[in-house]
Amino acid sequence: MLSFIFLGDIVGRPGRQLVLSSLDTMRTQFQADFILANAENAAGGAGLTAALAETLGQAGLNGMTLGDHVWDQRNFDQEISSLARVCRPANLPERCPGRDHLILERKGLRLGLFTVLGRTFMNMKVGCPFVAADRMLMAMEQKVDAVFVEIHAETTAEKIAFGRYLDGRVAAVLGTHTHVPTADAAILPKGTAYQTDVGMCGPYDSVIGREVDAVVETFLDGMKRRYEVASGDVRIAGTLVRVDAGTGLAREVEPFVLRA
Ligand SMILES: [Fe+2]
Ligand SMILES: [Fe+2]
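Above: the input record for the complex with fe (ii) ion. Below: its predicted structure, written as tokens.
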């Protein structure tokens, strides 16, 4: 059996602090071989820095993915290639720096992982996520015991279709980006664990992590504002997946929420 936990987008200092202080407990409580997280909002709510990636990694986060906020922090494009635990979306243009997938190894178990960006209502120049997934699976063939795929996308239909496309070929397809956990976690007919959105690790007394008033004002008058990261009701939203290491398919999928 191979078990991993995937945590939804880590948002700002509140999300980071709760994740940092909970990693050891989660590993023991869930008996997780690997702990992974999307860290696209870890630095001040937008992007990631090498320093933060190192801190999270040293605290026990085994792998970090990114999403549409991948390049938000200045110079991160210069730093990303030096970060062995971090991968950027696999369907970004090929010339972009950074790893497009990771192969992690612990206790003799090898877990491959990658993330793709959706294309519906996403303002990014990216290739087809379905084709990118095929390419990544080919690159990892014979090299891993299980594969975890993240789809970082806005719409449910694109995420569900993507999950169905990979059903039976990977251990899990879990969604992120909306920052709200969905109640549809299941094992698909051919054995792949699936959930449309894992949610976020951050302040839930907010509009997807940001202070409420400024966001509401912008919906009313259309004017741009600074959206500060909120601070209330901090939670970790994650999903535990247990995988049969022989077949690489899911045995169990269990979303969870931990409060500060
Ligand atoms: Fe996010
Ligand atoms: Fe995102």
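Notes for the reader.
The pocket of fe (ii) ion (ligand 2) is lined by residues 40, 67-69, 152, 177 (CB under 6 Å).
The longest strand covers residues 232-244.
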